[in-house]
UniProtKB/TrEMBL annotation:
GO cellular component, one term: plasma membrane
Keywords, in A-Z order: Membrane, Repeat, Transmembrane, Transmembrane helix
Name of the protein this chain belongs to: PKD/REJ-like domain-containing protein
Organism field: Pyrodinium bahamense
Domain named PKD/REJ-like: residues: 18-156
Length: 204
């Protein structure tokens, strides 16, 4: 008997962006667990939805690309406000899973920053991890650039208590970063000496 498993929906993107900037929310890392890992994304279909989380938000401008792996949102498509984007990933046979992603759209023009980590969002990570590389990308277009002279810094933030988030440690930027065009940043600092087991941390 060939028993199919549900697909795993995975979403990454910027948690903060400007309505003056293009941004993307990417579900291409989703997997059909009934197929080899080398066939990621094969035979999966995608359906995106948008939900307003406060009175300022308005999803009505979002009309295209709702069936793509990557949801591309052109600048000024949405108003400033809080949004939840959800994607339902469906495999052959109809089994599906939904993942969601929250984003704040602000009126400024600082480009959205998307983080890439070696673990999944909210994953449990051993404090003894030694080889960790975290990168961030800030794509720039003509209407969305960081102010001239901007400084970029890495921080580790304790987000265990969302009402009392604390900066824990400034982290070093890896040699060669930021990139020449100030769009890619990388750090390999992990800081196990000041991590508290069972706490939740975020890179910023």
């Amino acid at each position: 008997v060939n028993v199919r498993a549900r697909p795993v929906a995975s979403v990454v993107g910027p948690h903060y962006a400007s309505r003056q900037c293009d941004f993307e929310i990417d579900a291409s890392g989703s997997r059909d667990m009934s197929r080899p890992a080398t066939e990621e994304g094969a035979d999966l279909s995608f359906q995106w939805s948008c939900t307003e989380r406060n009175a300022l938000a308005d999803c009505s401008g979002l009309t295209g690309g709702l069936n793509e792996q990557v949801l591309s949102v052109p600048r000024r498509t949405l108003k400033g406000g809080s949004y939840t984007f959800a994607v339902t990933v469906t495999a052959v046979g109809g089994l599906s899973q939904t993942a969601s992603f929250e984003i704040e759209l602000e009126p400024g023009t600082v480009p959205p920053v998307t983080f890439t980590t070696p673990w999944k969002h909210h994953a449990l990570v051993p404090t003894t991890s030694q080889s960790v590389v975290v990168s961030a990308s800030a794509p720039v277009n003509s209407g969305c650039q960081a102010p001239v002279g901007s400084e970029w810094q890495w921080w580790l933030v304790d987000v265990t208590d969302v009402s009392d988030q604390r900066l824990v440690q400034q982290l070093g930027m890896d040699p060669g970063f930021p990139s020449e065009d100030d769009t890619v940043f990388q750090t390999s600092e992990f800081g196990p000496d000041f991590l508290i087991p069972s706490h939740t941390y975020a890179y910023a």
